[in-house]
Amino acid sequence: MDDRPRFGGRLVAALFGLTALLMAGVGGFPADTALHVPVALGFFLGVTVVLGADGIRRRDTTAGRLLLAAPVLHVGAWYGWLAVASLGDGIALPELVGALLLAAWVLALSPVAPLKTVDSRA
Length: 122
Hints:
single chain; about 120 residues; mainly alpha; about 0% strand; disordered C terminus
């Protein structure tokens, strides 16, 4: 029996669990504290890794191919924002892109997404 698909799913689940803990840490450490930035960076890096890992794992499916584009979009949002030298205090466009990508994964693209039909779960 080939355990690779099960291992891949468990790896993505573990990465998502760590990313979720980091997301909680972003809320636990206000923006003016020393730990906010490292925890936030870890969270957004985690989002990128989770989406990429699940995309690689399920690259033969439509959802997997969409997920392979998600890290590129997320990193591109950060690059674009930094290239413009930020748009000012309080503007969090790359964070918005990352949060929307994570929400799309949780709700519609993950293997257990509640918005999927039973037949499309893969």
